[in-house]
Amino acid sequence: MESMNTITIRFWGITARLAGAEQRVLQLSAGARVADAVEHLRLDATLSGELPRCAYAVGDDMVGLDHPLADGDELSVLPPVSGG
């Protein structure tokens, strides 16, 4: 039986509006990386166009798509911001 990790996805800014929620819980295979979570999120057509512009963080650390995810991690989806 394949081991699974529970990951909480936190959406910020426009991604929360597009997702229709501030968070989701995903079950991913042990050994999954941020890229695997993002690929799962791309199945949601409302989010897929925004995801390539986003940055990602696990806890308080900005991470790349190759960052491994552990059971209980919180992955934040951070859209670009603008302002003056």
From TrEMBL:
* InterPro entries hit by this protein: Beta-grasp_dom_sf (IPR012675), Mopterin_synth/thiamin_S_b (IPR016155), ThiS/MoaD-like (IPR003749)
One protein family per Pfam: ThiS
The lineage's top-level taxon is Bacteria
**Do you know which Gene3D superfamilies this protein is assigned to?**
3.10.20.30
- Identification of the protein by name: ThiS family protein
Q: Which organism is it from?
A: Hydrocarboniphaga daqingensis
